[in-house]
Amino acid sequence: MKVLVVVHHHFELWNVPTWFKRRLPREFPGIDVLFLDTYQGIENEIHDAEVLFTISLRADQFLAARRLRWIHSPSAAVHHFLFPELVNSDVVLTNSRDVHGPVVAEHVLALMFALAKKIPQSVIMQQRKIWGQEEIWKERSHPRELSGATLGLIGVGSIGSRVAQMASMIGMRVIAVREHVEKGTPPGVEKVFGSDSIDELLGQSDYVVMAAPLIGSTQALMNADRFARMKPDAFLINVGRGAQVDEVALADALRNRRIAGAALDVFEQEPLPADSPLWELENLLITPHTAGMTDKLWLRHYELFSDNLRRFIAGQPLRFVVDKRKGY
Q: What pairing do the DSSP bridges indicate for beta strands 261-264 and 191-193?
């Protein structure tokens, strides 16, 4: 059996570390494990691989694979894999949603606290050597408590479900939208709405957190009409995908104070261009797609992939299999 690992990224953290490359062949001595740090010439190696671990794959590269049975993505999002040739094939696709869930959920809580306690404003005043106690209180949106506030979750997968549990433990009322209401109410969630009732959720929420997969129905989900449905003192937080928010409509809503503020970790274009109007908005907190960053990242990747590889060898069901037609 041949396992091909192909990961190349300009950011060091997203690349496979040396210890991972040494440990995997040692723990699976009967398997031919090949690591590539470039996609050039991948066709020469993928043709006889049964397992592929990669963050990116084109249709022509996929068609060069003659024995491929399983693709594993070290990211949670898999929309870039869903080209017809792969979707219509028997190749199993798995993702790493549970790898990123815990750390991204922590980031969501940090953003909510920062917005509620007006931490960004305090940092700006610190840099200017201003004792801004009165200024912060006099702003339109006062510092507030999270306990007793309503959190509206759009998406209750690995990230959303953890956010729900953490938020409920600090006294927040949690409501959620999920595509399949029949799956029930996750722990920590008080009420689940169907996707056709998202406006009702928006009207009740003090904090709206987007943690849904990027599929057709979530593309530009938050637009001008949806911002108009939010409470004027509510906040939007997006840790899902940048394309799920109409950034022009968001900038307009923030500039005209139709909502109190927002925090974004993902954007339509990354890195965020220097000329983006989002940089200038005082009521927007920007984190540069750092929600998933942790020094435990590759240890979690290894634990998941090695466990699934053992399952694959034994003919057992794999964890976190993606429904290729649904996109998650």
A: unpaired
Is residue 286 pLDDT above 90, yes or no? yes
Q: Are 6 and 62 in contact (CB under 8 A)?
A: no
| DSSP per-residue codes, 113-127 | HHHHTTHHHHHHHHH
User: Which are the catalytic amino acids?
Assistant: 241, 270, 289
DSSP E strand stretches across the chain: 2-6, 32-36, 51-54, 70-72, 92-94, 150-154, 173-177, 191-193, 207-210, 235-238, 261-264, 284-286
Contact 36, 45 (CB under 8 A): yes
Query: For the segment 7-49, what is each residue's pLDDT rounded down to a tens digit?
Result: 999 999 999 999 999 999 999 999 999 999 999 889 999 999 9
What is the C-alpha to C-alpha distance for residues 226 and 158, in angstroms, rounded to an integer? 24
* CATH of the domain spanning 2-98+295-314, picked from 3.30.420.10, 3.20.20.150, 3.30.10.20, 3.40.50.720: 3.40.50.720
Strands (E) in 197-273, as ranges, are: 207-210, 235-238, 261-264
Q: Is the pTM of this model over 0.90?
A: yes
How far is residue 327 from each of residues 77, 79, 80, 154, measured CA to CA in Å? Answer: 9, 6, 10, 16
pLDDT (tens digit per residue) in 248-259:
999 999 999 999
Do 69 and 21 meet the contact criterion of CB atoms below 8 Å apart?
no
Altogether, the residues listed in the chain come to a count of 328
Interatomic CA distance for residues 230 and 258, integer angstroms: 8
- State how far the alpha carbon of 8 is from the alpha carbons of 42, 49, 52, 263, in Å: 12, 18, 14, 29
